[in-house]
Amino acid sequence: MAWYRKMVFGSLTRSLVYTFVTIVSVAVMADEPASWTRLLGNNADGVAVTEWDFNWTQQPSLLWSLPVGDGYGLGAVWGNEYYQADAIQNASATLSRLRCIDLQTGSVKADESRVLSYRDMYGYEVGPRATPTLDEDYVFTLGVSGELVCRDRRTLQTRWVVNTKKKYGVIQNFFGVGSSPLLLGDWVIVMVGGSPAESQTLPPGQLDRVDPNGSLLVAFDKKTGEERWKSGNDLASYSSPRTVVIDGKTFVLAFARSGLVCIDARVGKVAWKYDHRAGIVESVNAMMPVVFGDEVFVSECYQVGSVLLKASPDKADALWKDPAKNRRKQAMRVHWSTPVLVNGYLYGCSGRNAVDSDFRCVEWSTGEVMWVDERRSRSSVTRVGEALLVLDESGGMQVIRADPTKLNVISEWDFSGDDGGTVALSYPCWAAPIVVGDKMLIRGDQNVLCFSLNPMETGP
Question: Which Pfam families match (predicted)?
């Protein structure tokens, strides 16, 4: 892969296809209430669906700030209600908490807490790593300890609970559970990754010796919590399941601990697996697979880099693949932030730690690196039309125009407080921004900020 700036024009036909898919996605969502129903948005692609046209040269206005406890994820939105999960400490216990927030005012409309028992092996916060998933009736959370909870969306009253760690024999992963639920029809599907009895006696931290027991993904009845199927012989990762349609059939993709697993959603049967993982124990797969048609992109940052797959109902073939253990020739090395796809080009953060991370543009079909912004540390990205909202982990944001020919910065906003302003986010800011209607939500260590974006002025 070339590490120099190079413009490669895709075919007109392919560009039109990307545009058509975007238009169809917007049309499908048009009749639904303004929402951001799961991690990375309704389509799990980091793309905001909004009818607004924004003036990105003007910094947005703060509407409200919500103090939050432990945790790393942002929430989910349904209409005028925002749902945020975190962990708090009271006089006698640690609690996992879910709140329903008025999106306009930031006031708390409902609050529900449960006792949490979790200790992180690496000293990270004990709050949720995952994002709530919701529909018109229910909110589903998968906590850091593996507790799957279904609540009434309007009242937050608990409907049912499944302790996946206890039921499926899950051995604690590096940083606990960090995968968000997937809603598919009447099922809620979660990444579990349990282990047999003989693995339960292993000392902590020896995940290389842990065996799977066929419960990588488990589908539950969303109304009752009853198991409908379980499938996949792998351990859990920090990615989240999503769907892909291949030859008219719906499959569920799970970027698991050792690679990408594709499961027939109708019957819960593994269709194929593509091995993709670094050869070192302390490494994770964490990004959400990026899907375009029957093509799937996955990446990791430790050794093997990226691969673009052509998926069929019974196998996946590599269209291009990074050379292993050769960082200088790898197209993209994704850690926990999922890139976005715009008109045949991927835009996202590449690198493991701040010192070796950058933001870059990569051609989808070839893996050619178009440009690299080496100034950026680790960041996350959300797409709004042709604008990319790139939030770095310290609270700075760049608005970048999606342009494969060059880095095109529209605006730079500092939410870290370093500019002397009263609005401040604290490290780590690891969640991708949410945009719903004319609202933008971002999160730091101790608070969630909601902004009103500036609409583009129109003539008389």
Answer: PQQ_2 (PF13360)
Name the CA dihedral angle for 117, 120, 126, 131, rounded to a multiple of 10 degrees: -100
Residue 447 CA, chain-centre distance (Å), reads 19
Query: How many CB atoms lie under 10 A from the CB of residue 319?
Result: 16
- Cα separation, 32 vs 456, in Å, equals 24
- Whole-number Å distance between alpha carbons of 113 and 98: 6
Dist CA 335 CA 338 (whole Å): 8
Q: Which residues pair with 455 in a beta bridge?
A: 54
Q: Does the bond joining 428 to the residue before it have cis omega, within 30 degrees of 0?
A: yes
Coil, strand, or helix at residue 164? helix
What type of residue is 160? W
Token match 């998926």: residue? 311
* Cα atoms in the 13 Å half-sphere on the side-chain side of 416: 15
CA–CA separation, 146 vs 183, rounded Å?
Answer: 17
**Domain ranges for the chain:** 12-199+209-452
Contact 99, 110 (CB under 8 A): yes
Locus of tokens 């790393």: 72
CATH of domain 12-199+209-452: 2.130.10.10
Q: Strands (DSSP E) along 90-186, which ranges?
A: 94-102, 108-115, 133-134, 138-142, 147-152, 158-163, 182-184
Q: How confident is the model over 302-350, as pLDDT tens digits?
A: 999 999 999 999 999 999 999 998 999 999 999 999 999 999 999 999 9
Greatest distance between any 2 Cα atoms in the chain: 73
pLDDT digits (tens, 9 = 90+) for 172-205: 999 999 999 999 999 999 999 999 999 999 987 7
In a 13 Å sphere around the CA of 121, the CA atoms on its Cβ side amount to 14
Range with lowest mean pLDDT among 10-24, 39-53, 222-236: 10-24
What phi and psi, each to the nearest 5 degrees, are found at residue 29? -85, -10
CA separation for the pair 253, 265 (Å, rounded): 9
Structure token pair of residue 421: 């302003």
Within its chain, how far is the Cα of 294 from the centroid?
20
C-alpha Rg value of the chain to the nearest Å: 21
Report the first-to-last Cα separation within the chain, whole angstroms.
Answer: 50
DSSP secondary structure code for residue 202 in this structure? S
What b-and-e string marks burial along 12-40, b requiring 16 or more CB atoms within 10 Å of the CB? eeeeebbeeebeeeeeebeeeebbbbbbb
Supply 223's token pair.
């109304």
Q: What is the pTM of this model?
A: 0.91
